[in-house]
Amino acid sequence: MSKQDYMNTSVQEPPLDYSFRSIHVIQDLTSEEPRSGLRPLRHSKSGKSLTQSLWLNNNILNDLRDFNHVVSLLLEHPENLAWIDLSFNDLTSIDPVLTTFFNLSVLYLHGNSIQRLGEVNKLAVLPRLRSLTLHGNPIEEEKGYRQYVLCTLPRITTFDFSGVTKADRATAEVWKHMNIKPKKVRIKQNAL
C-alpha cells in the first residue's frame, strides 16, 4: 500500500482501542489485546495497525513514558496519528510527546489531573489540532479557562465537546487584551 493510499483509506479505519484495560504504563500496550469493535482492524504485512486513532481512555496512566516507541511498535504510520483519546486517566500534565504528532486533529484529555493552565501552551505547535477536551481537570476551575485555551489555540473548532463560535473567539480576544500582558521587547544597549 503506497503512502498516498494509506492517507486516503486509514481515516476510515476503526481505532486501536485499549480503553478500560487497567493499563498503568504505556509499555503494557505491547502485551495487551486491543478491544475489538464492529469492524476488524486492518494490519500491514508487518502486523502493525493501519489506523490513525489510538484510544487509551479509562485507564490508570499517570505518564506517557516510551509513548513514541510503543506507538511505533503498534502503528504502521505513527506519524499519521490523528486522534488520541487519553481521557479518564491520572495524567497531571500534557506530555510534550503529544506535540510530536503533527497530524493530530483530535485530542481528548478530559477527566485527568492536569493542574496548570499553562500546560495548554505546549499544544500550540500542533497545526491540525481542531478538537480538544480538558474539562474534568483541575485547570477547569481557573478563572478564564475557556478564554485562555481559545486564545492559545486559535485553530480549534471544538472545545470540551462544544463548538467554538465567533462570539467565543471575540470574548476570548477581549479577555486576552485584559489579562495577558504583551511581552516586552528588550533592546540590548550594545546594539544601539
Key phrases:
about 190 residues; alpha/beta; seven-stranded mixed β-sheet; 4 helices; 7 strands; about 20% helix; elongated
Distance between the termini: 59 Å
Shape: elongated
Strand order of the largest sheet: 1-2-3-4-5-6-7
Order of helices and strands: HEEHEEEHEEH
Unreliable sequence segments: 4-9
% residues in beta strands: 5-15%
Total strands: the figure is: 7
Provide the helix percentage.
Answer: 10-25%
SS-derived structural category: alpha/beta
* Average pLDDT: 91
Q: Sheet with the most strands? A: 7 strands, mixed
Tally of helical runs:
4
What is the CA-atom radius of gyration, in angstroms? 19 Å
Overall description:
- This is Leucine-rich repeat-containing protein 51.
- Its main location: cytoplasm.
- A seven-stranded mixed beta sheet has the order 1-2-3-4-5-6-7, with no helix packed on it.
- The protein is an alpha/beta fold.
- The protein contains four helices and seven strands.
- It is elongated and about 60 Å long.
